[in-house]
Structures are given as structure tokens and as C-alpha cells.
Amino acid sequence: MSDIACQLSFVRSTLPAEVTLVAVSKTHPAEMIREAYDAGHRIFGESRPQELREKYEALPKDIEWHMIGHLQTNKIKYIAPFVALIHSVDSARLAEAIQREAAKCGRTIEILLEIHVAEEDTKTGWNIGELKNYVGTAPFARMPNICVRGVMGIATNTDDGAVIRRDFDELRRCFELLQPYFGPRFNTLSMGMSHDYPLAVECGSTMVRVGSLIFGRRGLKKPVL
Fold it and tell me: Which NCBIfam families would you find in this protein's record (predicted)?
């Protein structure tokens, strides 16, 4: 069994059955993704649209590709024909642009609404008050080619577990506040990465985004054990 397969098995063993694992493969070559694929994994996350398209073209078509990084409106076209889920919808402008590209492709694109909860101003995302106002508007209702599946967020970059837990609890609160605006398909709370996903799961995460624990840090050939 390869190092990547071993690490995948380890991470899966730490997750409840109802939590989805997104293996974050950004910056890693297609052959490393293929190792994870051969170990049975099918859900991968990327942060750059053009890199995502190249990997889509090079790898098996039963892979479920997630866009997890900041997405510019002029880059949606690279991924609209095939992307399974866009985690990082952080503005009305982006949601409306995804609707237009999805309509051109004749498909519905599933999205998550990214909410800003971290202390760093550099992180992107909606303010929950603004988001609640927006999802109740007529323009939002007139977007038949997007399906809102839930919310995504990133906790403050800190070693203070209390701060991280506070951020995750706030994300869960936002998720619960927004549920009445949507149907039963609004069931995804994407939070937690390699360094904090166990705490995210404790706080109610249904989807975690784990990269370095599986593939290693950028530039390393083996996972960080």
C-alpha cells in the first residue's frame, strides 16, 4: 500500500460515516491523485480553475471535482461544464455569474455559500446579515441553474482551540439560520482542514477538506505522518 493510500485510510478511520472527505489535491500532480483514486477515493478539491480543468481532462471521469478556492467570475467558464460543487461562493456577483455559466452549459451547478467567521480580514466570505438579506431577494430566487447545498467557512489560523471552536460554532449557527430558506438538500456544512478537522467534526461538520495529511505539503513527495 502506498503512503497516500495509508494516509487516506487513516483519515477515513477518524471520520464518522456521515462526514464526507474531500481530498485536497491542489498543487499536487495528477499521478498523486491517481494513487488516491486507485485506493478508492473519488472526491478531490482544487483551488485554481485552470489547474482543475487540466486535471479533469487527464484523470478518470468518475472523479467528483470540488472547487474550494477563491473563484474569479472570469474563470468560472473553465470549470462550469463539469464541476460537482463550488465551496467558495462569497458574493452575489459570483453567484449570478455561476448561474449564467451553468445556463450556458445546460446544467445545474451545486454551490456552498462561504461565510466569513475568522479573525483575519484577509479571509473572504459573506457577513451573515448581508447573506440572509440576499437569499430572500427576487434576484436570488431567479437562479434556476444553481442549487445551494449549504455553507463553507475557514476558522482563524491559530493554535488556540477555543478560538477555532468558536468559529466552527458560529458557522454551524449560520448554517442553522439559513436552513429555513432552502429545502432538504441544504445539508452540507463544509468546515475543517488537516490541522483542525477533528474539532470541526465535533462541532457538526458534514464535509472536511484534508490535503497535507494525505498528500504531504507542497513540494514534498510523501505525506506528513
Answer: YggS family pyridoxal phosphate-dependent enzyme
